[in-house]
Amino acid sequence: xxxxxxxxxxxxIAGYIRKVDFPEVFDSQGFIDLETSDGxxxxxxxxxxxxxxxxxxxxxGFQVTPGLKETLSxxxxxxxxxxxxxxxxxxxxxxxxxxxxxxxxxxxxxEEPDWWVRQIQQLLNFYLEKQFKVxxxxxxxxxxxxxxxxxxxxxxxxxQNLDTVSRLIYGFATAYMMTGDERALEAATKGTEYMQRxxxxxxxxxxxxxxxxxxxxxxxxxxxxxxxxxxxxxxxGNAIPCxxxxxxxxxxxxTYRLTGTKDILVxxxxxxxxxxxxxxxxxxxxxxxxxxxxxxxxxxxESLGVNKAKKxxxxxxxxxxxxxxxxxxxxxKQEYSDFLENTFxxxxxxxxxxxxxxxxxxxxxxxxxxxxxxxxxxxxxVVGHNLKVAWNLTRMQSLKPKESYKKFAHQIADAIPxxxxxxQRGGWYDMMERTRKEGEEFNRLVWHDRKAWWQQEQxxxxxxxxxxxxxxNDDYLRFAREGSGFYNGWFLDYxxxxxxxxxxxxxxxxxxxxxxxxxxxxxxGYHSFELCFLAAVYTNLLVNRxxxxxxxxxxxxVWEDNILRVSPDLxxxxxxxxxxxxxNGQNYENFNREKLYVTLPxxxxxxxxxxxxxxxxxxxDADLLSFEGGIAKxxxxxxxxxxxxxxxxxxxxxxxxxxxxxxxxxxLKAIADTGWNYLLFTKxxxxxxxxxxxxxxxxxxxxxxxxxxxxEEFTLG
Length: 717
Description:
The protein has 18 helices and 30 strands. By secondary structure, the protein is an alpha+beta fold. The termini are far apart.
């Protein structure tokens, strides 16, 4: 055993092209110097067996790329998959597959304004079909839902887990908010009603609600209910985990944001009462216990074994992302703001552990001393939990700014890339040893170097929101984009649909055991849908400054003072505004631009509300009203200036085979010469049959048109 590398192996390099050469060398299309995220450089030979593709979204076919000589430009970020050869004069790498993230070096496909909207639509289609067979004409009936799905989406048994059902409902509700697809709303409302009928235990006399952990649908159609969780064996079973009761609220709360259904709010409030009565530590230490006995609801019962009087990240922190932030967004009640503040104050006080480890501590005894012997966790960390804390602390900073929130989020964001990120290939690892032992130069992985889909979500959201909110470290946006590239490049299952649970370190799918499937106790339509929603919000509204539309379906008379709150997330004060509202397809003017709420009209029917959230200061928008027969009709709003012209260009360029434009200028206040030049040049390039029709011009816009001497060039209507 020499300890030297003396065999070839395939692997992935993610990096930035720093140098390009095209020498006359056997089997070479060229050589590139590729610099990884942490500054190491590899010389990559691009063989004639190498092919390149453009990253594609779910539902898209193979994306053709330009020729490699045009593609391999300095500064471009790529993934190169190939073979390492250890030879006498060093380790050599030959690329066989190159993944590009845009048609040029400056535009990333996964930051296109509608990238995540299209992805969530495909996820919605996948789960509607696999769970309910909607493509075959079946109705959405949650008695047919199953937790465990194979990699192809086939159902495995009769199990329905509480938190998995709720998480899928969250996904459906979120898909409706992004797409307006009525099937998603139907699935969210029917799923919530199913939970209420079959999983809910409501004790009206005590004012509490709790939820059964699991239903088993027997072969004869009968149902067996479970009080205690079956997850985790001795480490999680025979108890009611706090996280299951927390995640029971994820789907109903997101559905409540859409509809305002009063009975859902009763369940939310009564479940919080249950959590506060039995899980909350009312003694001097505070926080929430991780488990309670399923009979006595005692968090200190001997029957709990290793879970007796314990606290952890899930029981303390998961309230915020699972339901509490969304509940606050829907109501803006002070009691939920206070709950959030207490949650994050607790995290900032007890979770940091930087004198000992680059990772926070997340397992505790009753008095907040560190539990370093619990089950499989031991003295280890979950990388995604660290990133999740950074993400949620930054969300909270927008609601109630505190130096402690900012400091801890930055500590995590600065420490994790070196400790828990794969800087060679991209992506975030799973579980790590919290400290290095003597003689170790690398942080040790616990069981494997695979990467789970949900941990990629945490990294993408953490760094995008920190880039958008703080904008004080260029590396944060780089980490966000590198993580999004890895996720979109390797986790999307183009053949069967949906998202892979795990991939190997090099991005190839891992397809063994419970990690093979598209549904399990761990996986449902939650993290992948949540990622689509919030990645779109952060990239569009905070980073790239694009408007976004959101959809709601409020029932009549349910919202206090008829006020529908439509903020998509906790965002910095003054960073966005509500620019347009449509109710039942018609423009509606009674809304508060700065406070992001709509005062709904009196109605005895459910309303269909579409709102447009716009980055503050963005005074132009182009809304595609229709695209029929090659004619694209847009409504223009605001001021079409040199800096805002790109928004119109991007909307037009997204369409194929455009034969003409109809521009409704009712709400267009002004247009710069560059706007007229763009329209004229677009018409010129498209040919003599291309038409541009302008309607409803204001006096100021008409004057500008006449001064440009283009009134005879365009059709006025």
